[in-house]
Specification:
The complex is a heterotrimer of chains A (437), B (496) and C (125). By secondary structure, chain A is of the alpha/beta class. Chain A folds into three domains: 23-141 and 280-346, FAD/NAD(P)-binding domain, CATH 3.50.50; 144-277, FAD/NAD(P)-binding domain (3-Layer(bba) Sandwich), CATH 3.50.50; 356-435, no CATH class. Chain A contains eight helices and 28 strands. The longest helix of chain A is centred in the last third of the chain and has 21 residues, at 326-346. Chain B has three domains: 2-42 and 151-221 and 323-370, FAD/NAD(P)-binding domain, CATH 3.50.50.60; 90-144 and 226-315, D-Amino Acid Oxidase, subunit A, domain 2 (D-Amino Acid Oxidase, Chain A, domain 2); 384-491, no CATH class. In chain B, strands 6, 7, 8, 15, 16, 17, 18, 19 and 20 form a nine-stranded mixed β-sheet that branches. A six-stranded mixed β-sheet of chain B has the order 10-3-1-14-22-21. A three-stranded antiparallel β-sheet of chain B has the order 4-9-5. In chain B, helix 1 packs parallel to helix 9 (346-362). Chain B is globular and about 60 Å long. Chain C is α+β, with helices and mostly antiparallel strands and 125 residues long. Chain C folds into two domains: 3-48, N-terminal domain of TfIIb (Single Sheet); 55-116, CPE0013-like fold (Roll). Chain C contains two helices and ten strands. The N and C termini of chain C lie far apart (70 Å). The chains are: A alpha/beta (437), B alpha+beta (496), C alpha+beta (125). The interface between A and B is large, with 58 and 64 residues. Bound molecules: flavin-adenine dinucleotide (2 copies) and iron/sulfur cluster.
């Protein structure tokens, strides 16, 4: 079943390449930014590396995000999604990293600390591959109308923002003409502008929170620039249909506990409802391996190496935690690759002292959720509610960083050096947001 | 040659048709207004093959007989037709003494109808049989024969088998009138023209009363009784092995909690009587869904949170004014046959209704012989992700499309999708729909409800078959998936 | 003499500073609230002539995808965004296209080119 490996010419990646070996040091699952960055770093460090991607091409979500806003941190340049991710793809194609597209990891088995077995289904047959480590970077999926409790009939014309974006910007297909958007995160805001720029009418963006959950600059350049109405403290409770296609959304005002206020129902006519209500890490394969899932991040529980509770299985990107920026996904991919290298070299990651991270005041979620106390730690977290003028505090080590403003929609990123962490005397470390003075 | 037209490609009409294809001398045609089979009541129900001990043997003698007979036929049918099914048994869970007392009568019914194994169980045994039952419950009634199937897969399998045996399906064709001449049915008028007929069978589900009226029969009417459901992700840990059921009260028949053959927890239904004209009101409401959630929490130890719901939907029961199945061969007009008012347990009874109705027809016709070449078997679409590697690789070697998993929630390959399209064409669907593909392959059927795979599937259909995404519909009619090309709106071709 | 105060959200970086520009007879008198020079530059431009980068897609014939994604090489006036997008509705390019390839020259006579942001390779088989 093996064929001689031939690298396609520059940039051509529609033809699946092959798996050439039976044993790898690391198998990266997912060929998006996190996975590509992980693979490049792993190879740079000398690991035999394989990337497995289910779609017909490498690149992940940024392939379809044709707006600028990518790479500001990583390349210090403002690029569109495809431009950003092709830097990684092109680089990967110039190396001898194995990759296979249209390929799906059907089963993963933990055999021993230095051996995991993967069953991969590909258009050229089933491949059984052994690997010392796995870097899981399968990204996230979007929440659906059912997960946010929109009732009514089940007509055509209700889709997630990502589905609409794939149709429009990968395949050149217009999903609708009169659009209502649910969710004012960056994804919802960006899609609102995309629709307007292609001649569709956006009748509104509905947001349950009393403030927009995306960046203010996106509220400006996506909604205000084009006069698109933003309905704050509102939710869509049900839909109506005509001839099998959605014909309107029933929108209602909510109180401060997000409960609908009776008598404020309002029907908004539209032929398409785009759900941009957030993402959920894909964790199916991790769950099948028995990895512990954090009910807050909805991703795996990890230590500062982004190692899951299964030894040698690492996670990065949106499969680990939902990131605001692709740059963070890439950063996590690289860190996971370094950790995998350490794991391969040292036959495992040792624990100096197991520490549990505890969520304190106004913290909603965080990774890592545990520490081994053998390395610096990079924390990513989100607050529960907006606050001004606060400290981000790592309580037991007495470490505080001032923050002018914290918002649930803006991820907090904070590195803590090992020497600081070593000051910890307890086996828990509380991360909290506390008022200044 | 007698031409038999069956109106309605639901589980009832299809089962009747399957029986009729066993005979030489009959031409079997099934007509449905929808572009595919099973899109009426058959699409949205609890999917249980009932043990039939809840039927009143005196009040509904025919129904209880057909229920049990249908139940027993399903064992054979699911094997012949490769329909996903399982037979875990059912427990009616009592949460107080009154409910418990109410269960005694079913033992009597079971005895009289002939349902095996039905017995009362105490709390201890109940919790051993099904640890997911709420420990506050006090006892229950166990019926070991209960099963569940995937009703859409069943309808599709039967339809394929009918066509394989020379029957014909006219889908996307609405029956508008029935022509009676000299006291006999002679033809049906449809949205696509008239078709002559010797026998016309009315299996039109929610619209059966309207069809009967076309033949001059108006001694009953049908109203919809809505049932709403919540379907949870196949990845929640709450997975009762047995089919669970709240004790019926005079007001409600009770709410079920069941792990479907596809591995999802399904809870429901409500029982809401709607006005006669609300026959398309298969919509969910917050009240309805809240009610189900509350009822299910009485019989389950734990319920998954609401954000683990992958789909909510509603079905409409065709409730006949007579309260019972209406199955008869009319002498006036001669040749008009009814299988109407097929409410619950219509799915269970379907194979037996089919047998019963076909007998009513055959015994009135001459020169009808059983066929020797009738094919009982139909093969399901292969599912590579669930095969052993060796078998899978054989399939992939023949067709590499089976090696590309497109839908990651349900692990469905492109090969399965293309095979589904081929089969849809073979049974004569007038258009390829996304729902048609969904019901055949279970792509777009998992946690993400197609948000990840649907655009790619639509694109691949475009590339492979030339069906543009703005020509494809989700469920026929005006349910188009997309409108036009991206740039067309700016160019001003608003029509699309 | 007319005095005017304009509040602007800076869109140059994700921080989104709120910048206040004071105008006198259409001339800038003061700019406050920015946190870096880029923000100041942006505000100066934004009060007189707001400009944005346009991103869209263009049909790609014979490609492995039906469309190629594009952007304007420089910002164009906000008021002409939709008109500009429309100008891209009637054109098509032929595969192969690489990132940075010029797709359209001098859009709406603005002296700005449209360039590809995603490759579109020739369709095989
Ligand atoms: C509309 C939108 C706008 C955005 N805008 C910006 C922005 O302006 N700036 C910014 O910095 N970020 C932006 N982002 C965020 C950015 O796209 C993500 O952070 C980034 O794509 C995450 O990378 P990832 O590699 O973790 O996941 P993904 O990009 O999702 O890649 C995961 C890959 O894994 C593959 N996969 C999944 N399951 C399997 C499996 N079982 N086996 C093999 N492969 C699998 C998938 O097909 C996919 O290719 C935006 C996102 C969206 C949706
Ligand atoms: C909420 C609910 C729960 C249920 N649970 C169970 C259960 O667990 N177990 C069980 O055994 N039963 C159950 N049932 C009952 C079972 O689903 C039905 O009895 C069965 O599906 C009825 O099938 P049918 O073929 O008679 O009707 P349908 O499936 O409705 O078929 C009738 C067909 O006729 C077509 N038609 C109508 N008018 C025309 C026209 N003018 N021209 C052409 N075509 C026309 C329709 O399009 C439709 O496809 C339940 C029902 C509901 C609603
Ligand atoms: S002023 Fe500077 S820091 Fe503030 S948003 Fe603009 S570019 Fe960013």
């Amino acid at each position: 079943m093996l064929s001689p490996k031939s690298k396609p010419s520059y940039g051509v990646i529609v033809v699946p390449d092959r798996i050439t070996k039976k044993d790898y040091d690391t198998v990266v699952i997912g060929g998006g930014p996190a996975g590509l960055a992980a693979a490049l770093k792993a190879r740079e460090k000398g690991l035999e590396t394989l990337v497995v991607e289910t779609r017909d091409r490498l690149g992940g979500i940024p392939l379809q995000c044709i707006h600028p806003g990518f790479g500001i941190h990583y390349f210090k340049e403002d690029m569109t999604g495809p431009e950003f991710v092709y830097r990684f793809i092109d680089k990967l194609l110039s190396t001898d990293i194995d990759y296979t597209v249209k390929s799906y990891v059907n089963m993963a088995e933990y055999v021993s600390p230095m051996e995991k077995k993967l069953e991969i289904i590909t258009p050229y047959g089933t491949e059984i591959v052994r690997t010392k480590t796995i870097i899981y970077a399968a990204g996230a999926r979007e929440r659906t109308r059912y997960e946010i409790g929109i009732t009514g009939p089940n007509p055509a014309g209700i889709m997630t923002a990502g589905e609409a974006q794939t149709l429009m910007d990968m395949y050149g297909v217009m999903p609708g003409k009169k659009i209502l958007i649910v969710g004012s995160g960056d994804v919802g805001l960006i899609m609102a502008r995309r629709f307007v720029l292609e001649g569709a009418e956006v009748v509104g963006v509905v947001e349950i929170l009393p403030y927009p959950s995306g960046l203010i600059r996106n509220v400006q350049q996506c909604l205000k620039d084009y006069g698109i109405p933003l309905l704050l403290s509102h939710m869509v409770i049900s839909v109506k249909q005509r001839n099998g296609r959605v014909s309107s959304a029933v929108v209602v005002k909510v109180d401060e506990n997000f409960k609908p206020i009776q008598g404020t129902e309002n029907e908004i006519e539209c032929d398409t409802i785009v759900i941009a209500a957030g993402l959920k890490p894909r964790t199916k394969l991790l769950e099948s391996l028995g990895a512990q899932i954090d009910p807050r991040t909805k991703g795996p529980v990890v230590n500062e190496y982004f190692e899951t509770t299964i030894p040698g299985v690492f996670a990065a990107g949106n499969a680990l935690i939902i990131n605001d920026y692709v740059d963070y996904a890439v950063e996590q991919g690289e860190l996971a690759a370094l950790a995998a290298t350490k794991y391969v070299d040292e036959k495992g990651i040792r624990i100096k002292k197991p520490v549990k991270i505890v969520l304190g005041r106004n913290m909603r979620l965080i990774v890592p959720q545990m520490l081994t106390l053998t390395s610096d730690a990079l924390f990513y977290g989100r607050v529960a509610r907006p606050e001004d003028n606060v400290w981000l505090s790592f309580k037991e080590i007495g470490f505080k960083i001032p923050q002018l403003k914290v918002l649930p929609s803006i991820m907090i990123r904070q590195k803590i050096r090992l020497d600081k962490l070593r000051m910890l005397e307890t086996d828990t470390l509380t991360v909290e947001v506390i008022p200044r003075d | 040659m007698y031409r038999t037209i069956i109106i309605g490609a639901g589980i009832t009409g299809l089962s009747i048709a399957r029986w009729l294809t066993r005979y030489r001398g009959l031409q079997v045609i099934v007509i449905d207004k929808e572009p595919d089979v099973g899109w009426g009541v058959t699409k949205a129900n609890t999917s249980i093959i009932h043990p039939c001990h809840e039927e009143h043997p005196d009040k509904h003698p025919l129904r209880s007989k057909l229920c049990l007979e249908g139940h027993n036929l399903w064992y054979k049918w699911v094997k012949e037709l490769e329909i996903p099914a399982k037979w875990p048994g059912e427990i009616i869970v009592a949460t107080n003494d009154e409910e418990l007392k109410g269960l005694h009568k079913y033992i009597d019914y079971a005895y009289r109808i002939g349902v095996p194994g039905v017995r009362l169980i105490d709390r201890g045994e109940m919790l051993r049989l099904e640890p997911w039952i709420n420990p506050d419950a006090i006892g229950g009634l166990y019926a070991p024969t209960a099963g569940t199937i995937n009703p859409m897969m069943a309808a599709i399998a039967i339809a394929e088998n009918i066509v394989d045996n020379g029957g014909k399906l006219l889908l996307g064709t609405r029956v508008e009138d029935i022509v009676v001449r000299d006291g006999k049915v002679v033809a049906v008028e449809t949205s696509k023209g008239g078709i002559e007929a010797d026998i016309v069978v009315n299996a039109a589900g929610l619209y059966a009363d309207k069809i009967s009226r076309m033949a001059g029969i108006d001694d009953y009417s049908i109203h919809p009784r809505r049932g709403q459901y919540l379907l949870f992700s196949d990845r929640v840990d709450v997975k009762p092995n047995k089919i669970l059921h709240t004790a019926p009260t005079p007001k409600t028949k009770g709410v079920y909690a069941i792990t479907t053959v596809d591995g999802n927890l399904l809870i429901g239904p409500t029982a809401e009587d709607l006005p006669e004209e609300a026959r398309e009101e298969n919509t969910t409401t917050h009240q309805g869904l809240d009610f189900i959630y509350e009822m299910a929490s009485r019989i389950l130890r734990k319920l998954p949170p609401r954000n683990k719901v992958v789909k909510t939907f509603a079905g409409l029961r065709p409730e006949p004014s007579t309260g019972t199945f209406i199955i008869r061969f009319h002498e006036k007009p001669w040749g008009f046959v009814e299988a109407a008012g097929i409410r619950s347990p219509g799915l269970t009874a379907a194979p037996a209704i089919g047998k019963h109705v076909s007998k009513l027809i055959i015994e009135r016709l001459e020169n009808i012989e059983p066929r020797k070449d009738w094919r009982s078997k139909r093969q399901a679409i292969p599912r590579p992700a669930y095969m052993a590697p060796r078998e899978r690789d054989k399939l992939i070697r023949e067709n590499p499309d089976y090696g590309w998993i497109i839908c990651v929630c349900r692990k469905v390959s492109l090969g399965e999708i293309m095979e589904a399209v081929k089969r849809m064409k073979k049974i004569g669907v007038p258009e390829i729909t996304l729902d048609g593909i969904k019901f055949r392959t279970h792509s777009m059927y998992g946690d993400c409800q197609g948000s990840q795979c649907r655009p790619h599937i639509a694109y691949l259909l475009w590339k492979r078959l030339g069906i543009q995404p703005w020509r494809i519909t989700t469920k026929g009619d005006g349910s188009k998936y997309a409108f036009t090309e991206v740039k067309a709106l700016l160019r001003g071709d608003r029509g699309a | 003499m007319t005095r005017q105060v304009k509040k602007i959200i800076c869109i140059v970086c994700p921080r989104g500073c709120e910048i206040t520009v004071e105008l006198e007879d259409g001339k800038i008198k003061s700019i406050k609230g920015y946190s870096c020079p880029l923000g100041k530059q942006y505000a100066e431009k934004e009060v007189v002539n707001p400009e944005r980068i346009l991103m869209s897609i263009v049909e790609c014939v014979g490609g492995d995808l039906p469309v190629v994604s594009v952007k304007t090489a420089k910002p164009i006036p906000l008021s002409r965004m939709i008109e500009a997008s429309k100008a891209l509705a009637d054109i098509a390019v032929k595969a192969p296209v690489e990132i940075g390839d010029k797709i359209f020259e001098n859009l709406l006579g603005l002296g700005v080119d449209v360039i590809a942001t995603r490759p579109c390779h020739e369709q095989r088989g």
